Amino acid sequence: MARTRSSSSSDSSDSSRRTRKRRSHSHSSLSSTSSVHSENVESPEALENVGIAPAPPEDLPVEMTREKVNLTEAEITSFRGFAKGSAPDPRLRETWFNTLPTINDVAAAAPRLDKKLKGPNYKISMTESQAIQHHEGLFAALNLLMLSNASNIRGTDDEVKFRERAMRIISVQIQDLTVLRRLSALDSLGVPSGEVSGVRRKTLDLKPEKHPNVDGEQIHQLFSTEMVEDIKAYLKQKEKNKTARTSLAKI
Hints:
single chain, mainly alpha, elongated
């Protein structure tokens, strides 16, 4: 009989533990769901990042294999001439670029970095992996532009399609360089990237401003107004903390 009561007591205890476990799991699930829901609804960061990053191109399938296209001998010679790189005379480089036609809009030029946001050791650096990604992006765009000029493509719908894809790739490269320059500027100022909202995800604002050195010209900034406010707020607080520590040290 004692054995039976012991078994009954054990079963009852196991049942109670299972019940508590189910309740605990249920409560944990509800709390987790509530937390996620709250984050999605109330998180300023979640709302802030809505619509920031451009959507991926619609014409890219989920799975695809790279197609290799053969060019004529003359076309491949021309392509290789561009692919090996160009080294114009440094004295004529800027002059040559300035003769190229540009869109009459502030978006046609590279963004500027406010001199006030340049730290004493401002230097742009990248890893080998990042450098390879930039190289690959440039070669991908060059491939598409060359294909759009190929004799069997020019004048067809594919010519426009290849050029549009090349522009998309260049747009991705622009964003990559934007992020690289932003991170380098923050590093020179001693500002952690996490203190500035949207450093990696926000695209350029393209808000025109008066050029500081050229009359009648306009520029746009590397950092948005909101980012600049974040940077200044962090630096101000950093200086305030430094002053407070110095005062305590003197006591």
